[in-house]
Amino acid sequence: MFSKYHDHINYECPMSEYPRPQMRRESYLCLNGTWTYLIKGKDRTLSGNALVPFSLESELGGGIDPLKKNELLIMEREFVLPDLFNQGRVLLHLDGCDASCDVFVNGQSVGTGDCGYLPVICDITKALEDVNHLKIIIRDPTEAGGQPRGKQSSSPKGIWYTAQSGLWQTVWLESVPEHYIESIKLTPHYDEHQVEILVRTNHSGTALVECDGQTIECSVGLPSFLVLDHVHPWSVEDPYLYDLKIHFEQDSIESYFGMRKFSIEEDEQGIKRLFLNNKPYFHTGVLDQGYMSDTLMSWPCDQAMIDDIMTAKSMGFNMLRKHIKVEPLRWYYHCDRLGMLVWQDMVSGGGPYNKFTINLPLFTDIHYKDNIYWLFGRSSLMEREKFIRDLKGMIDHLYNVPSIAMWVIFNEGWGQFDVSKAYELVCSLDKTRTVIPCSGWHDQKIGNIRSWHVYFRPYKFKKDPLGRCVLLSEFGGYQLPVEGHLVNEDPYGYKDIKDSTHLENELKELYEHQIIPAKELGLSASVFTQLTDVEREVNGLMTYDRHVLKINPDVMMKLNRQLY
Q1: According to the model, what pLDDT value does residue 209 have?
Q2: What is the pTM of this model?
Q3: Residue-wise over 48-87: b if at least 16 C-beta within 10 A, else e?
């Protein structure tokens, strides 16, 4: 089913905008577009053309059956570097390749990747020729591999979606000098009116940082501090961003940061609340899966990202919970500049989930200890260690994003294990954000947040016995199928809705009698399920193809304003 953006796609080179807005260089060559693919397995051999960056399983990527656990996917294309492009080194970026890959240029191995949601960067300088052949060998066993997979399933139904394989984010090249900036780490210290800047390079030396009319020197690998005379805070209502330029020898990058502070404090009544910039700030959010009807996890165009964010804003939501997926960096950039808080979920993984384990707490409020590994599909020590590496990788990858207010480590027991250790790790890696250890259930009574998911029954606020900040991180799920905008005749949701008028009345009842009163009692955030339909799930406020908004945004805006 084609989305509303089908006619807006640049089929020569889809998603060609610069992919990494917080570390921009002048050199850029996009390799999206037509590639060839070959699937080799015991039971099938398939070959043809693929349109990158759309996965082969998506409608625009080819619409093939998902890759099986014992199959190989080989994706190939040729490229020629423009004249004067090579400044010393050439770096190849695979921003998303699901799940593991081996990368070759002109027959030479140049790199590997083993997480489908984090970028792979390869120095391909020594392998370059006049005409270059790029080959990527990919494996994707989905549940059988234990790697992060999120909502992907080899048997999609209900809340589980079509498995995807291969390149699903932008592939691109950049050139850098022999000595270059590898990464930066930007930490706003709101109360101190300064930003901490850490520049990492592949060679020792000193970097120059230009910002807000100042120039400071930074010893690479060591933190430096830029003091701001007059701080302009970043917020949803005023998403102000400071521009930043960093120079190291012959290399230069452009970046940005926002001055904001996320914390949990007591309000005037002594209730633990979420704070933004030292003031209580209620997060009224919506669950956001980031799927599209014809491109699945990929975005068809840059405007589609912008429109989803702005549609949520038009309904009065100030937060998107990015659910079990890591988006392209441009999506976070748009949240930064448009003003939208983000709760970022870690992508779940592990072995097949035990239905009894993940469903029991919804109806009984019984919570298991998460060191019983087999109950949570986490018997493999190697897979548990890999999850921790990928968790570190996600936080490092997204650390600089101003709009990310919350890390969510585990959701509803999906592959959960040793959350107390993971929570301590996340807090040690990032002291600027709040953290939900377990969203929904299998609460281990740690941290300073108690997260609830409530479906199938009215929500009643409960004060946390441990004095933690209370969040309703999922609720709703009202099912309204829209004829002509369904991809499956077996729709799924949590409460049947007849039409848009019925939906508006039910939402008014829900917010005015359950959510808004709970805020006064101590609720600090709410996350409605969900922004859009996804495959069989028809509980979105928009259809899967984005053609239909099921509710008048003004109705939702009026409800959300009562939560500000």
Answers
A1: 97
A2: 0.96
A3: eebbbbbbbbbbbbbebebbbeebebbbebebebeeeeeb
